[in-house]
Structure prediction request, 121 residues.
Amino acid sequence: MNEEIAEQLEEKIQEIESALEEMEDLINQSGNEGALSRAQAYWIAHITTALRKETQYLGGSMCCAEETIHEILGDARCTICKSRIQEDEVDEHLKSEHGEMFVNEEELMESMEMYYERIEE
Prediction:
């Protein structure tokens, strides 16, 4: 079920990306370089980074649509060592592999979300 949902979400992301390209082309056809430049620097960049983690733009979204797909599928990667881990293994991984980075258990638990991100396979 979740795999079907993830596929549908990916299709919607691709539809939005396609529509965004068409919009950019239309602005380009207008010949107004200033409008195109501003669109690319602002709303096109915002939409693009809201959809995908890896883009041509610096920065990004705190949680993009692509990461939501990976969250639904249960894929995760430790941001400290970049190891692939299943969502239900995050706590144990952080304790066993990175526990020395934390002063105490409470600090580890509070910081857990900060050290874990969803990724593409």
In short: The mean pLDDT is 78. The helical segments are 2-29, 33-41, 43-51, 65-73, 90-98, 105-111. The chain has two domains: 2-69, 75-117.
